[in-house]
Structure formats: C-alpha cells, structure tokens
Amino acid sequence: MRDRLLGRPVSDHDWLVVGATPEAMVAGGYLPVGRDFPVFLHPETREEYALARTERKSAPGYRGFTVHAAPDVTLEQDLARRDLTVNAIALPAERVNADGGFDPTSDTLADPFHGQRDLRDKVLRHVTDAFREDPVRILRVARFAARFHDFSVAPETMALMREMVAAGEVDALVPERVWQELSRGLAEARPSRMFEVLRECGALAVLLPEVDRLWGVPQRAEHHPEVDTGVHLMMVLDTAARLQASLPVRFACLMHDLGKGTTPAEVLPRHTGHEKRSVELLQQVCERWRVPVDIRELAEVVAREHGHIHGSGALDAVGLVRLLERCDAFRKPARFADALLACECDARGRLGFEDAAYPQRPRLLAVLATAAAVPTDVVARAAQQAGATGPKIGEAIHQARVEAVAASPG
C-alpha cells in the first residue's frame, strides 16, 4: 500500500485476513507456513495471507512475544501493532484490481494512524508505544530511511529508539535478523542514511562499534583534503550505491577502514599500516553477525589490499603479479573485479572526487588478462622436463606471468 501511494513499483502484496481461524484457512486450501505467526500461502497465487493478530511482550528480544490470532481481532487492532504509520494503511481486497492496482483517492482506505499524512510529509513515525516491544524495528526504521532517503525520522520515534537502546533491547537481537536488515539496508538507494539513523539513536555503537568509532578519526590521504573517517565511509557507501554495486562490494566498502578507529592519528598521513587491524576487526564483525562466506572473503581482500591497489600505479611487473596472487585473482577473477570496484568507490568517496577517474581499475584488469593468458600448462610441462618439482613449478609459472606483464604495452 505504501509503495503504491508513493507511485513506486510494487513487488508483492501484504494480505491480511480478518475474522478467520487457522482451521478455516486450511479448509479453504491455504497452506500454513508461519512458524511463529499464523501465515498461509494462497492455493493458487502462493502469496502470503496472515491472520489478524495482536502481540504482547513476554520476554526480551526479537522472539519474546505472545501472539493472539482469533476471529475477534479487528483490522485496527492488527494495524496498531505495525511498526510505522506509513506501513499501517489497508484497503479492502475487493477494491484491489487483478494487477494489484487501486484508486489512491479512494475513501475506503483504512488509515487509523494517519499514515497518508506522514507519506505526504515524508516522516517515518512509529504507530504506538508497542513499537518498543520489538528491537528489530530500530533496524527497520534505519533501513526505511535508506530507502526513502528524503524522509525524516519523527523526533518522538527517535527518542523512543534511544530509550530502547538504553534499556538493552538491541543486545538481545539474534544475528540472523541483524544481518538480514543490515544487508537489505546496504542494498538501498542511500545506505549512508541507515548508519546515520543507527548512530543517532545509539544502536550503531552496540551493533557495529568498529564502525561507530570511525567518526572523529581524521581521514588523511595524499592529494586529498582532510575529512572525518566516518563521513568518508558514508560517502564511499553512497558512491557504491550510485555505481549500482552488488551487496558484497557495498559491505566491503563499509568494512575496509575499520583499523583506523584504533590507529593513532599521528601515523595516518601515509601508509598507515591499518590494514591488518582492519582485517582482524572485520573477522570479528563477520563472526558476530554470521556474514555469508563469499561476502566476508571479498571484504577481507579489500581491507587487506586496498592500499596496495590504490598505489598499484607505482608497481613494476613483479609487484603487479604478486598483488594479483595475494588477491587470488587468477582463481577468482570476478571477485578481484569486485575488489577493484570497491577500491574505486573508496577513492571517489571524497568531496570533489565523486566523478574522478580511477585508472587503477582498468589497468589492473588489463594486467590480469595479460597474466592469465599465459599457458600455464605449457610452462609447467617445460619446468617438469627441466627437472623442476613442487614449488619450483609454481615459481616458473610466476616468472612467466611476470615476463608477460613486463612485455605488455600497458
């Protein structure tokens, strides 16, 4: 309903069933799928239909709820448990067309909490005080801020979120839900807004203290103006979104400078040596929130090697091939291409450099293509015939790649 009112594409529908029982839904051919809530799949469309319900807090954290779903639960009672007013608007099913469309001027919209007003005013506002019962909603507000980046968070909602953080509710969040919301927020149009909201309410210091402490740390780089590292990080993220980078690239952008939060400012101007510490902190984050392996591996490459990639213009053929080998570029060229994109986002994530060229990326891709074109099987056979075994064969392949890169015009 929200997206349709905003004129945005609608990818799915949120169907609510009032006055029914689980038994009646099953008798109608609906398939029960909800483990924690009474949710059913339509027998033909396979869309989800949820019974109207109320919830009561029974324990800390995300799963601490007692759910009541019964025929006497009204539409308004169900809408009252929603997180934001803009998500608490409903329309009778008979008013929805086959393609999901409806007349937005219809006076049949159920909007007891003035969600349409908040859509017009571009405000994210909680529905009722029941918001405080689910700490995941803090992450959802931050994620919606990243999607609707011209919306503000209502002052009373921000105050409530701060109270929840102070009460320790965020500490009870389970890793799966944290990663789900963080990853979805990273994929939005303005991911920096998610972290700004989390930081403003205090949740970032709990969930990602490694990121939170980057604000206030000077970010100095040769030929670039001085800027706060946290601010730089947000610019890098938004550059990744502007370049339509994938989730793994965006996560790598978020994680690449973590070590600067624990590195004394006086050693920052050049060659800071923060990369090793960044990798250590990244690994802690990934363990804490169970980040998928492929996303973690790319972030590790970027955290460890981004300084070398930035400075690759000064490397000779030996240094270039060693860089490719450290990045495992010959076995995983697509991941290496993603690492280069993350580094480009890092370089362009500064005021005045948003549209600057990043020659390192095309040059290193060309170097990889040249080195990868070396017929390693032929080189290996020749080395074996000369009596080489084991590591010596690898050294012969390495040398052949170095010679090919040295002989290339670029």
Question: What would you note in describing this structure?
Answer:
The protein is an alpha/beta fold and 410 residues long. Among the domains are: 1-112, Beta Polymerase, domain 2; 244-353, no CATH class; 376-410. Helix content is 49%, strand content 7%. It has helices at 2-5, 22-27, 75-80, 115-121, 136-147, 155-166, 175-186, 191-201, 203-207, 209-212, 229-242, 247-255, 275-289, 293-310, 317-326, 333-348, 360-372, 376-385, 391-407; strands at 15-17, 31-32, 39-41, 48-51, 53-57, 65-69, 123-124, 152-153, 218-219, 227-228. The strands form four sheets. Strands 1-4-3-2 form a four-stranded mixed β-sheet. It has a two-stranded antiparallel sheet with strand order 5-6. A two-stranded parallel sheet has the order 7-8. It is elongated, with a radius of gyration of 26 Å. The protein starts with a helix and ends with a helix. 36% of the residues are buried.
Q: List the uncertain runs.
A: 265-271
Shape: elongated
Proper CATH architecture of the domain at 1-112: 2-Layer Sandwich
Mean of all residue-level pLDDT scores = 88
- Broad CATH class of the domain at 1-112: Alpha Beta
- Strand order within the widest sheet? 1-4-3-2
Number of strand segments: 10
Question: TL;DR?
Answer:
This protein has 410 residues and is of the alpha/beta class. The protein is 49% helix and 7% strand.
Topology (elements, then pairings):
Blueprint: H1 2-5, E1 15-17, H2 22-27, E2 31-32, E3 39-41, E4 48-51, E5 53-57, E6 65-69, H3 75-80, H4 115-121, E7 123-124, H5 136-147, E8 152-153, H6 155-166, H7 175-186, H8 191-201, H9 203-207, H10 209-212, E9 218-219, E10 227-228, H11 229-242, H12 247-255, H13 275-289, H14 293-310, H15 317-326, H16 333-348, H17 360-372, H18 376-385, H19 391-407
Parallel strand pairs: 1-4, 7-8
Antiparallel strand pairs: 2-3, 3-4, 5-6, 9-10
Helix pairs in contact: 5-7, 5-8, 8-11, 11-12, 11-16, 12-14, 12-16, 13-14, 14-16, 15-19, 16-17, 17-19, 18-19
